[in-house]
Amino acid sequence: MKIVWVREQTTVRNVYETMLEKRKVAYTTVMTMMRILEEKGYLKKSASEKAHVYVAAEPKERVVGGMVSEFLNRVFDGAAKPLLLHLVENREVSTSEMEEIATILKKGTKK
User: Fold this and answer.
1) CA-CA distance, 15 to 8, in Å (whole number)?
2) Residues 104, 108, 109, 110: is their CA dihedral positive or negative?
3) Within 10 Å of residue 56's Cβ, how many Cβ atoms?
């Protein structure tokens, strides 16, 4: 999805070639993942001269929110606390990020 958002519209071949710059991946894997993202409503495709062209179906924020919710439901039965504890305990959240989160939480609780 990150590649689609950056390019705004792209083909499976473009995504595949971009991903190859960072890690080895099979073309068929990229094609399958893009098909799944289309089936879930995250991508739209249209026929071009030779290949299907994909665009994001929704803005990045909405898609990320949906994916996070789906992940929380699938892995943590919808509970965010175990995920947050894991991130903090494994030092995957920096001190500055935790301070930013605390500020956001304080703003949200003031009425």
Assistant:
1) 12
2) positive
3) 19
Enter the tokens of residue 64: 């990320």
pLDDT digits (tens, 9 = 90+) for 17-74: 999 999 999 999 999 999 999 998 889 988 766 788 989 988 888 888 888 998 999 9
pTM: 0.64
**Domains, in order of start, for the chain:** 2-56 (1.10.10.10), 80-111 (no CATH)
How long a stretch of residues is the chain?
Answer: 111
State both tokens at 89: 């305990």
Q: Which of 79, 74, 67, 72 is nearest to 43 (CA)?
A: 67
Identify which of 30, 69, 67 has the alpha carbon closest to the alpha carbon of residue 52. Answer: 30
